[in-house]
Each structure stands twice: as structure tokens, then as C-alpha cells.
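Dear colleagues,

For the upcoming journal club I promised to circulate an example of a predicted protein-ligand complex. I picked one with adenosine-5'-triphosphate because it came up in last month's discussion. The inputs are reproduced below in full, followed by the predicted structure.
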Amino acid sequence: MKIMIELKNLQKVYATGTHALKGIDLKVKEGEFCILLGLSGSGKSTLLRCLNRLIEPTSGDIYIDGINVVAAKGKKLRYIRRKIAMIFQQFNLIKNLSSLTNVLTGKLGYSTLIHSLTFPQHKDDVKTALENLKRVGLKEFAEKKTRNLSGGQQQRVAIARALMQNPKVILADEPVASLDPATADSVMQYLGELNKSDNMTVICSLHFLSLARKYGTRVVALKDGKIVFDGTPVEIDEKKFKEIYGEDAEEVEIR
Amino acid sequence: MKKENKFKLSLQAILTDLLFWIYIFGCVSFLMDRWFEKAIPGNFVVIFGIAAGLISFVLGLSAGRKVFLPTIRTDRKWYKSFWGWSVFLILFITFVVGWNLVEVDLYKLFTKFRNAGGIMSGIFNPNMDILIVCLTALAETIYLALLATIFAIPLAFILSFFAARNLMPKTFLGNTVYIIIRTIATLFRSIEAIVWAIIFSVWVGIGPFAGMLALMIHSIASLTKLYSEQIENIDPGPVEAIKATGASTIQTWIFGVVPQIISPYLAFTIYRWDINVRMATIVGFVGGGGIGLLLLQQQQLLRWQNVGVIIWLIAAVVWIMDMVSAKVREKLQGM
Ligand SMILES: Nc1ncnc2c1ncn2[C@@H]1O[C@H](COP(=O)(O)OP(=O)(O)OP(=O)(O)O)[C@@H](O)[C@H]1O
Ligand SMILES: [Mg+2]
């Protein structure tokens, strides 16, 4: 199978001096659902945000779908970014705009300024946006301001926005960490669905092993900015778990 | 405490003490001049001040030490300590000097009320015959304030993005643009609208246009500052999310930043119009046209009944604007 994401000796040192990524080498194949595990501060967010250059890596190479991400500038970077959707823990919707408008912003990478200012006039865009909202079960919420939606609904709007990008890769940074277990599972189901039926490659950081086992096809664990485990979810036993989370850790399962 | 830090603090303390005592002797000199026509010569003021400052610092009694080196003798009550008394002395002397400089004269205040009889009776017997003229001038004032606000909005709106720390890239160019716009805005804001009015009344001639330009400049500077501070307080999350979709910088600002700031912007802008109407009357006094100019002319002609009409009209407009702008802003809060 084709390699979708490739990292070579990726390093990130923040301006504060924190060495957050200490040489990450990783290949993710197309269609994988790759779970990132690791303690708080291990570098999960840093890694994900380097992939679409929300932060600048200090050194190393990133190839996504064969394109050199680190070297990209201006328009080229925009074209790469629109194929990589991102889902955030805090949803990051624009709260005083409607769900529909929020979903339409997923199209910005494909649109000229004039086109994006007249989104509501472009019937095909609106139609796609409504279809995407329908796909996450929120068609009747199209006109509602997202501030009035529940956390789970907001995250589903964010997924619809991601779909609008027609992405090859989805980066999800703790997408369910602010949700209750049942809602978390339903949001993960949508991501799982996109992975299976649309063959989107997913990299998703999580804190719950149970969800990792249920949805992940692969688990990569970080510790102090280095990869300490790379394998399938079932391979994580008591011993591996303690390697990732430290000797004192107890596995807390939330189902 | 670190060594260099302690040195710096000591230096600040001793400078404070020197200035403290030079100021006290300066005040004493001024008062002696007023009362006995015998000032202390300037060089003596400085020498005495430095001497007193050094002595109090060396003895460890000074106010400078108290402020900057707080470890020394903090246990005593202020009225039992030298620094306490010297601070009391400086406040007292400042008050006495102020009283003298301002020429406070309670005798005049309580015995010469009759002088104001003309204007008082004018206020309560306004000359309604000139109402139309006044209303025209008032319209001039309100519209010049309105135009000043309208012209200021788009300029301040655009400038505010470049004056927001979180939007400007942390490159040399980004920093330079940020600093230049911020500095100019602060500078222009600190020059009062009345000063701008004087400048423009010479430039384009006395009249409402000069007043409009003065208020516009001042509004642009103020709104740029208020707007950009609003931008700096937005939630960075949505902005990042928009950026991550592949949006261009302009698209990111329009879709990620603008929706977050639009309602506070409106509130500020309406508040600004409110302020501009008030300032427009004042600006009129120095050549900015409108009701202020009319007021100045009538006052100089001692036409107190005409002045009366104008004062009532100004009061009414300010009162109405105040209410309207408060109401609108209240409504915007919920958006
Ligand atoms: N903007 C920043 N500036 C400086 N240091 C940062 C910044 N962001 C993160 N760090 C540091 O980099 C390290 C990795 O942080 P990162 O956010 O990637 O961890 P994480 O695995 O996502 O943690 P969490 O599970 O808490 O989200 C931490 O030590 C953190 O303090
Ligand atoms: Mg994180």
C-alpha cells in the first residue's frame, strides 16, 4: 500500500528551549487509523501541528502524499493544507456563525477571496455543505449558531467542516477529550467511518486505551518527544503500558 | 536579592530621594517668593535638595528606601518614622503650592455671585427667536461628528489588524509594522482633538470641515487602539482552524477574526460617535464650526439669552446620545 505520511528525523525545539520532538521517524500508510498515545507533554500536539505547519518544525522532513511539506510556501502550502483536515479538542468553530457557514469555511482552501465572500450564492457549495452536515446527522441544525450546540454536536460540525475539504488525511488532536464517554464514542464512530468508507488516513491523539483499541489500526506512543512504541493496539499489554505511561500508571478503562 | 538588582534598586531609591528633596526645596522657594518676595536661588535649591536627600538616604530614613528597598525598618508605624513625616511634608507642601498657583479665592466665590446674574437669567429665559439658527448649527455639529466617525471606521478597521500583536508575524517586517502603527496611534491619540482642530482650522479654514478632520484623526487613532486590543483578546483556536483549512491570510482574517470582533467593534464605534458629538461642541470653540462656534460668538457678544438656548440644546443632545448609545450597546452585548 502507498505511504501517505512520512517523517524523517523530525525535530522541534520551541523558542523557550523545550525540545518537544527529538527525532521522529514515522511512515503511515494510506487508510491507516493511527492512534498517538503518550503522557501529557510528550509531544503529541506538537507532532500533529507540525504536519500541517501550524507550527514550524526545527529540522527534519515531512512528506504527505509525496509532497515535501517543510519546503512548501505560500500557495503551495495552502494546497497541501486543504488536503489535510484538522479536528481540535476545543472544536474551534466560529461560535457566532451558523453551522452551515462553519462547514463552508472548509472550502476556503479551494476558493478565491471573492468566491469565499459569496459562499451563500454558490448553490453547489451550499449543497455539498448540507450533505456533509447530513452525514454527521446535523442537517436540521444548519442555520443554528454553533454556540448553541452541545459539545458533541459542535465536534460533528467540525467533522463536517473537515469533510468539506475533501481531505486525504485527518489530523485529530484529542478530538473527544472534552466529551462524555458516550458522546466521545459516537464522535469516534464518525472518524472511524471516514477512515473505512472514504479511505481517509487518520492520525488521532487519544488518552483512552479503550478507544485506541476499538478504532485504531495502529498505535504510536510518544515519550519525551521520542517514539517508544509502534505496533497494533492488541500488542499493548501491561508491560508496554507501563513503558509508555511510567511505572506507577494504572490502566483506567472508560467504556 | 541578586547583586545587580540590588544596585539598580538602590540607584532608583537614591534618585527618588534627591528629586524628593529638590522638589520640597523648590516648593519652599516658590512660597517664600509669593509671601516674602524672597526666593531661594535655584542653585541653592538643588544643593540643599541633594544634601537633604543624601543625608536621609545614608541615615536609612528615606522614602526612597521605603519604596525600593523594602527590607529596611518596615516594622514602624508611619507616623513614628522619618519617611512617614517627609511624605506628609511633601503632600502638605504640594497642597499649599497648588492652592497658591490656582489662586483659590473663597471670598470671591461666595460674594460675587451677582456677576453671573446675566448668564443665569439668560439660561432660564432663552431667546427662542434664534432657535432655527441654533438648530442648524447643532445639525452641523451632529453631522460633523457622524462623518468623522464614518470616515474613521474603515481606516481604523484595516489598521487595527496590523496593530494586533497576535496577527502580525514575528518577523522583522511584522514587528516593524506593528510598532509603527501602534506608536503613531498612541501619539495621535495623546494629541487632543482640540489641538487638531486648531491645526486644521488654519489648514482648511474655520468651519465644520476643520472640526470634522480633527475628530476624524483623533477617532482613527482611538479606534485603532481599541479595535486592535479587541483582536488581541480573541480566541486563537478558530483562527488556527481556519488557517488549517488552507485559507489565505486575508480569508483567515475575514472568517476567523472578523466574526469574533464584530459586535465589540460596533459597540466601540457607537460609543465613539457619542464621544465625538460631545467633542464636536468643544472643537467648535477653537474654529471647528457648528454649535460650539456659535456659542463662542454669542458669549463674546454677551448675548446671554442666546447662550441660554445653545446650552439647553447641547445638554439635550448629549443626554439623548448618551441614552441611545447605552441602549444600543446593551443590545449588542447579547449578540
Ligand atoms: N507554544 C509552545 N511554546 C513552548 N513550549 C511549548 C509550546 N507548546 C508546547 N510546548 C512544550 O512542548 C512539550 C510538548 O507539548 P505538547 O503540547 O506537544 O504535548 P502533548 O503530548 O500534546 O500534551 P497534552 O496531552 O497535554 O496535550 C511540552 O513540554 C510543552 O510544555
Ligand atoms: Mg496536546
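Two points we might discuss: Chain A has a mean pLDDT of 91. The pocket of adenosine-5'-triphosphate (ligand 1) is lined by residues A 14, 16, 18, 20, 38, 40-46 (CB under 6 Å).

See you all on Thursday,
B. R.
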